[in-house]
Input
Amino acid sequence: MKEILFSGAISAFLSIFFTPVFIRILARRGYGQFIRDDGPTTHHTKRGTPTMGGVVLIFSSILAYCISHLVTRSPLSASAVLIFGLVIGLGLVGLADDWLKVSKQRSLGLNAKQKLLGQALVAGIFAIVGIHFKDDDGLSPISLHLSGVRDTSLVLGSILVVIWIIFMVLGTSNGVNLTDGLDGLATGASIMTFLAFVLIGVWEFGQSCAVTHVAKCYAVRDPLDVAVVAAAFAGACAGFLWWNASPAKIFMGDVGSLSLGGAVAAFAITLRTELLLIALGGLFVLITLSVIIQTGYFKLSGGKRVFKMAPLQHHFELVGWGEVTIVIRFWILAGLSVATGLGLFYAQWVVS
Output
């Protein structure tokens, strides 16, 4: 358990102190955010704010995880290495997108097909590698079963698992990316989700089939170490939020939002809680649905809109809500979603 405390604390420390250093480096080079003219006019004041802060999130999380293991002299796990591989891969896709935006001073970097192809490629490699590397109990980081609050009896098989994981990673990484439209919104919501996975990982470790033989034990590889990784990401986001809260001194950029979304998906996959992610990431799901509804209705109705603007947070901006008000209320929704997800996870252990 010490690794979790060390990982979270060190990650928060690194993030809160390295972020202003990164801000100064980006500001000197003029790597600022380019703001779209068709968005809310209040965002124009954010033009030039340093972006690509997700680099600090990734760096802090990985370094904190490694330091915590050096301090406790515990070995790295295959699941943790796999998760960081996915995060770095998606971060590189996001970094390429951010770099094109700041270097060419435009609001669009990679086109949609390029970005989705890059994400799908990284997710596919993650899935293929993850179904291998079994431990002594025959458990691999990624199961061939569909999971809800644990593995179900439905076996998908290798090909369907790879397709399913690509779908999950694309959904969550783009969901966090869409949520990252207001200062601190995606960062704060991500903290809550990561902390939920810390609790789930610790519980699964305590009720692991490797250490207990109760009827409801969990057949999960490396649940405690996955919780350590989740704590590292929660700590990194907490430190980053100090500078990302309104008025933001730095944005995480696509390098941050895509990597954080990938991490969320990876935790759900490796902890065998894939369908539970709908509740745990409820805010990300809601915002993604608003974009799908807006786009679909616009095409079907010949140009009509359901919302004044999508994603959903911008609709409320145009209605007249203040940015801080929207962020806090959406954090409340995220918290309620996480609480619902944890309730569903622990419900099976409640004796009626």
